[in-house]
Design a protein that fits this description.
Radius of gyration: 23 Å
Order of helices and strands: HEEEEEEHHEHEHHEEHHHHEHEHH
Strand order of the largest sheet: 5-7-6-8-11-12
Shape: globular
Largest sheet: 6 strands, mixed
Number of strands: 12
Number of helices: 13
CATH class: Alpha Beta
Helix content: 40-55%
CATH superfamily: SGNH hydrolase
């Protein structure tokens, strides 16, 4: 039988827990309001996209926005971002007599950091007098790019397809690896399984999905996880240490190869060029090997030229340290001209 003192102590503990919970909820509510009113939008790529049952998410069509971008060196410039039909940033006339260039990629090709006229695809097409069909969406893996190519190829009937790839593709192509990665889009998307089937997965723990409904709580969680993360436990660490001996990465390597086979099957005799925006082990060599084994021409030098320009003090990247300024896009385009010119004339 509980004494009066025991009951009083139990109630104190209960009241303390209730007060703590209420305080925490009020703190989160106030933080959420303040954060939404004052914070800049972090996912400025994904607020330009909408959910899609087939691709996971898709670039919004006929969309316009204006914003200010800061370069890595601190310079600011204004960007008028716009898309047209089907979310393409460029979709030239289909009755054009010019040869047709289809460019498909991720955030580097979506290029929310530059005006449409400054994108590498546009500069490249104008330099070689080509009709351009340019589609990019942040976070896309190789399968999503393949499915997009399959969707539009017969309509556009391009004379050349540029597939833009980067090191993130290996994580984006493998749900379990994305789940444990410190880089994660965290949206439901299609994945190709080892058996060649398409499976749709949301690579986020259920409890994290609940927290993500609050931008403020998500920010707190992100900072906490970053502060407590063990570097030697991350997907990226395992990849760099073990390469394809790290089972998830080895599986993703094979799956990425299967997706490239799928793209080649669709484009047939149409030339396919892989633009590799990648640097460092093991990603660079593995993407090169995947392309070389399939006879897919690849362009690695444009990105190396951009990196050299950065080392030489040129302002070629934006403040996030990854994406390109107009100068960066120009360097990529100029580096592609010789390769594209040869392929388009074959």
């Amino acid at each position: 039988m509980k004494t009066t003192q025991d009951i009083s102590t139990s109630r104190k503990i209960l009241y303390s827990l209730i007060i703590t919970l209420v305080f925490l909820l009020v703190f989160i509510a106030i933080g959420e309001v303040v954060f939404r009113l004052t914070a800049q939008e972090e996912n400025y790529y994904y607020n330009k996209a909408s959910n899609d049952a087939k691709l996971g998410w898709r670039t919004k069509a006929n969309y316009q926005s204006q914003g200010t971008i800061k370069t890595k060196k601190g310079a600011e410039y204004t960007v008028d971002y716009s898309t047209i039909q089907k979310g393409f940033r460029h979709f030239d006339k289909l009755d054009s007599l010019k040869k047709r260039l289809l460019v498909v990629g991720d955030s580097y090709t979506q290029a929310v950091e530059v005006n449409s006229a400054a994108m590498y695809g546009r500069v490249l097409a104008d330099s070689l007098d080509l009709a351009l069909y340019n589609y990019g969406q942040a976070g896309y893996g190789t399968l999503q790019q393949a499915m997009l190519i399959e969707e539009v190829f017969d309509t556009i009937q391009p004379d050349l397809v540029i597939l833009q790839m980067c090191s993130n593709d290996f994580v984006d192509n493998h749900a379990p690896m994305e789940y444990n990665s410190n880089y994660r889009v965290g949206l439901r998307r299609p994945y190709l399984t080892m058996s060649g089937e398409i499976d749709y997965v949301l690579p986020v723990a259920r409890w994290k999905r609940i927290i993500k409904k609050s931008k403020f709580a998500s920010l707190i969680l992100k900072k906490f996880l970053n502060a407590t993360a063990q570097a030697d436990k991350t997907t990226q660490y395992q990849i760099q240490e073990l390469g394809k001996e790290y089972l998830p990465y080895g599986q993703s390597y094979q799956i990425t190869g299967q997706i490239l086979d799928r793209i080649q099957s669709k484009v047939g005799q149409t030339p396919l060029l892989a633009l590799l925006l990648v640097n460092g082990k093991p990603y660079e060599q593995d993407l090169v090997t995947l392309c070389a084994e399939r006879g897919i021409p690849y362009a690695l030098e444009p990105f190396k030229t951009l990196l050299k320009a950065q080392w030489d003090g040129k302002d070629v990247k934006t403040s996030d340290g990854y994406h390109f300024t107009p100068l960066g896009h120009q360097i990529i385009a100029e580096g592609l001209i010789p390769e594209v010119k040869n392929l388009i004339q074959e």
